[in-house]
Amino acid sequence: MTTVVVGGSASGEIGPNLARALKAEYFRIEKKDFPDGEFVVKVPFDARGKDVVIVQSTYAPQDRHIMELIFIADALKDMHAKSITAVVPYLAYMRQDKRFLNGQVVSAHMIMRLLNASGIGRLVTVQPHKEKPLRLFRGRADSIMPIETLMGRVSRDLSDPYVLAPDIGGLELAKKAARILGCGYTHLDKERDRITGIPRIKNKPHERFDGKQVVIVDDMISTGTTIMLASKFAYSRGATEVVTAAVHLVMADGARHKLLQAGVTRVYGTNTIPAKNSVIVDVSGEIARAFGKKAGRSRKS
Questions:
Q1: Alpha-carbon distance 39 to 31, whole Å?
Q2: Cα separation of 215 and 111, whole Å?
């Protein structure tokens, strides 16, 4: 059966790169915007009987990119595609997987219900902020962890690295990064105000970083505030240089300026989200390898 890859407007270079890796035909979705802000999409090929892979990231504007993904999937379902796989390099709304305050929506759960209803039978994403919501997806869900590729690129520029996780939630990622780089690691103990969302360091580790190039590792950089705090701490403990590496470079709300002000010399990331002035690695190959794995519920690569 023929496999076809179709790229949404937020597929970037991952769409055509994945198609080449899978030896599949590639199409770009046709999209028309209306004056009132609404839009319509058109699948530019006959999908009947085909295994179709949609590539669509859901970075800002998240709502439009998510709706585009849902529209494409629904069109493919109506066209009687044999199977529909959604490759969503950056999966938005994964932060909130529980209700912290009365009346809040659990957005991660809602996104899973939306994907289920759209006819998507398989989901492939890259390091979601929370893994647990993937269990609510009714089909197969694969989570790609590109830390090895990312650290491989970082290692080319550093001679004496030391890994720092900006909070305890990033400790496992820091361990993996340190193993790949062959160096030590530690983490900060951060807490975030539930109302304002502003983070602060609660407890500081005892390690010093004299002569070290500190690598702050996280799954994403959003506003940059957490990385800024970690960078200032690293320099206060003797670091000679601070770089940061994150899978998803959201880079919102003046994040770039905050990092520069805090002395971060380089930002490493992947192409799940378009990013300027950063060292970017391509995750298309790792996504392609997920298609060769045996079926499973949710798998780390």
A1: 7
A2: 32
pLDDT at 297: 35
**pLDDT at position 239:** 98
Buried b (16+ CB within 10 A) or exposed e, 149-158: bbbeebbeeb
Q: What is the rounded distance in angstroms from the CA atom of residue 87 to the CA atom of residue 165?
A: 28
**Contact assessment for residue 152 and residue 166, using Cβ atoms and an 8 Å cutoff:** no
Q: Which of 111, 44, 51, 38 is nearest to 72 (CA)?
A: 44
Task: Give the pair of three-digit tokens for residue 179.
Answer: 């193993």
Catalytic residue numbers? 190
- Provide block-wise average pLDDT over 10 residues at a time, the chain (301 residues): 91 97 96 96 97 98 97 97 98 84 86 95 94 92 96 97 93 96 92 68 85 97 94 97 97 93 98 96 96 49 34
Domains and CATH numbers, the chain: 3-146+283-300 (3.40.50.2020), 147-281 (3.40.50.2020)
CA distance 83 to 104: 34
Place of tokens 């595609």: 81
